[in-house]
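Structure record:
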Amino acid sequence: MKESAAVIRKARLRSEKIVNAALELFCEKGIEDTSIDDVAADAGVGSATIYRYFETKAELAVRTGVACWKKIETRYLKALSGRKYAEMTGLGQIECIMDVLVKIFEEEIPSLKFLQEFDVFVRRNGIEVERLKEYEDCIMSLKPRVTDALQKGLDDGTLSFLWSPEEVCYSLAHTMFSLMKKLAWNGSMLSLDARVGLGLQVRITRDLLVGGLKTRSAGGPSEAQEQEK
């Protein structure tokens, strides 16, 4: 039994090592420009070893996408918990959530570039939706926090909107993450892109989205800004 557990642990650690190497290379070089041989060399294993854990490069890419989202969740979503967060109004919580997204953009450009390319890779390779279940679950980890904050805002009167919290949640998430990934991927491609800083564009979008949700009586400095004082 002990030997079996040790073998399982060794296999898990080797799989994680391969995925971590793939994530680093995919963020640095891109998925298409990274070969299995590249990943093997970085992970310190043979290419045949990788294929024992992942049948195809597409399978490795999906597992790497999951690892990327889990890394982001671990690093940033802890700010959306605790007593101080729980005591905020619905508006304050939405502002805090959006500030976390801005911070992710400012600190995780390589990861966002990878996630943008991953979307294209999935389409190009026809990866079935069933194989993306764990990846989707990682993305959805933010949803309960957003819908709870939106509902709290309706209940305490700091937010006002005509749609369901779930509908607004998807709209906010798609708008922010689409912009963040697009700007990370090719936000500096043209000379006109230099006219407005990429981070400023994300912050302006955050303010416009939050401003469209808050009630007129909820103006003034944001609760997140007040917490920073």
User: Anything to note?
Assistant: The longest helix spans residues 2-29. Residues 57-218 form a domain with the Tetracycline Repressor; domain 2 fold (CATH 1.10.357.10). The two ends are 56 Å apart (CA to CA).
